């Protein structure tokens, strides 16, 4: 993802070269103190520092650390990328994606489901490629929320690359190119067919921000529409590396011990330049020079294409063997993600080193880390270092993983700012405000910063608590950074300062922020918010009557009780610490936090909602004729009915459902992950692309029902079904009604009638797979349940389908079930082998179990 460098970026790059050249002349001089400069995005790169679980922002001009932002636990397995000044950290092992605002260091996090997920970043959005399921999803690059419907990937994703605005995918099965972009309604794909017919292994890269396709003996520079702008002849071998130039319509081909640069303006490739043994990290082509790692992993080779000469840098350290090269804003960095060491390499071979953080944690094995915490960003400044580093793998340019370090001590204790507390919660001008915080761990340093609405500093403090009063109304930002050795955390909140509040009356139109000083009981409408950015702090009081936000943005209602309906029609509304009867949302970017509601509905126009740490006791619905996206995280739903009709992409994560029901009807792309369902059920009707993963189901009659066909492309994996009558039922009455549905890696135990049942009323290939599941002790309390043919349902897996149904059964493990481990009509399923049975009286029927 790159476009033509701006004039500002060129200026930064030239300034960097000037600084580096001057530093080379002053040999042996001590590094200068860090220079205080405006925090511009140009010339800065986000690098992974896995040992401390941070994404580190490095200034390549000053060669110093700007900030370290926690994104994972120590020794996490994440990689980093960026768009402009915004950074991203993605842990493929856990699916955790963290976005970092380049200006404020504020974070947003989401967890992506699905396997074999790759992420690609553009200025329009983040694209998630699930190659195994053949699905592409788009995320808003600021909120990280899904946007629009999922799209099908080409049959064969042979290669991909990004430019400034699009993801380009080459399909080797038919020679086509598809450009995916993200618009207001979601992702769209533009396909160009027969671009490289007959070539099964094309290459894609990006040169000067434009896609380059290399296939069938020629290279093609493509336009934004997929048309071929220029071509040249080039032969590429299976093991050759192809990488586009940063600043020119050219690319480098590295093969064996030599390389060549191909230039679209010259329409030819240059002479071969011998470089000898080199490392496996991808090269960088910038300013007519090729940077690549050397064979022993301790130097950088710089090949000058003008003179066909090769320069080797000095050793980066006495012990480094493998590292990564990262280019950003015309600056070339080396980085070791596993340790503190990184630096900048100039075109003349000068090496400037820095340390990304100060104190190493106790050495532990380099393994995938825990789920990233929700801790806020950390801001810190470092000096250019003179210590040598151990560069290793960075996602930006590929590379190789450094060897693991053996465990030798405990992990560092956690340090996190849990909550910033202000008293009063809604300050008034000229009234003292007390600031304090709830913090996990033992900070040794505190730094408070209060910023005015224009971004300038209002007040600072280095104490654990402090007091301040404000002279003017407005939105202020309060940041707290804490540290203890190398551990740091930061949190930022918005504080609304208001004028002394006026009394409120029934039917008032509120046009400025205020605090309710007494209960308000109304026969009809209570209050209407009639302006943007109005906060109403109920201060523990109760409003009887309806509250309406009349097409105004930035409204905030908090800290009290509303015995009536709240209607939100406007963007950016916030409901915090509120008890209410009914909430209706028809605006975008709505957040409900730490609240309790009987009924919540997201209606037409409502999108990008997030409900967190809240309780719902009646009903929740989200869906309309227009696409909408949203998320519910960390909530408790008690006796509630959840309905998701229409074109809704909703994510339900880490919630607890108690005696609740969830119904998805004509829904697409909903994700239900890591929830607890206690005596609760999920039912899917005529839906597609739904993911149920990592959930726990218990105490229900039928915990999950997929029926009323079609319900296609459903993924059910890594769930636990225990103590239900039937854990999972899959039913279809039309051919291919469960096409591309996959049930894998689930655990079914102690379910009364069966762990899972399948009932297909119409013959036809289903392309449905049941693989790698465990069925233990099911069917011992079937209560006479039978299938449509009168056969008893008292098995681990019970399948009732016609011959030729096309259900694929593979590698399932069954033991101690009441009758069969797996029971299916003979010839009705496809036995892919690997199934086992132990302690099942009737063994298996319809498949072979060993």
Automatic annotation (TrEMBL):
<dbReference type="Pfam" id="PF13229">
    <property type="entry name" value="Beta_helix"/>
</dbReference>
<keyword id="KW-0732">Signal</keyword>
<feature type="region of interest" description="Disordered">
    <location>
        <begin position="358"/>
        <end position="410"/>
    </location>
</feature>
<feature type="domain" description="PKD">
    <location>
        <begin position="416"/>
        <end position="483"/>
    </location>
</feature>
<feature type="signal peptide">
    <location>
        <begin position="1"/>
        <end position="29"/>
    </location>
</feature>
<feature type="compositionally biased region" description="Low complexity">
    <location>
        <begin position="361"/>
        <end position="382"/>
    </location>
</feature>
<dbReference type="InterPro" id="IPR013783">
    <property type="entry name" value="Ig-like_fold"/>
</dbReference>
<dbReference type="InterPro" id="IPR011048">
    <property type="entry name" value="Haem_d1_sf"/>
</dbReference>
<dbReference type="InterPro" id="IPR006626">
    <property type="entry name" value="PbH1"/>
</dbReference>
<dbReference type="InterPro" id="IPR039448">
    <property type="entry name" value="Beta_helix"/>
</dbReference>
<protein>
    <submittedName>
        <fullName>PKD domain-containing protein</fullName>
    </submittedName>
</protein>
<dbReference type="InterPro" id="IPR011050">
    <property type="entry name" value="Pectin_lyase_fold/virulence"/>
</dbReference>
<dbReference type="Pfam" id="PF00801">
    <property type="entry name" value="PKD"/>
</dbReference>
<dbReference type="InterPro" id="IPR000601">
    <property type="entry name" value="PKD_dom"/>
</dbReference>
<dbReference type="GO" id="GO:0005975">
    <property type="term" value="P:carbohydrate metabolic process"/>
</dbReference>
<dbReference type="InterPro" id="IPR012334">
    <property type="entry name" value="Pectin_lyas_fold"/>
</dbReference>
<dbReference type="InterPro" id="IPR022409">
    <property type="entry name" value="PKD/Chitinase_dom"/>
</dbReference>
<dbReference type="InterPro" id="IPR035986">
    <property type="entry name" value="PKD_dom_sf"/>
</dbReference>
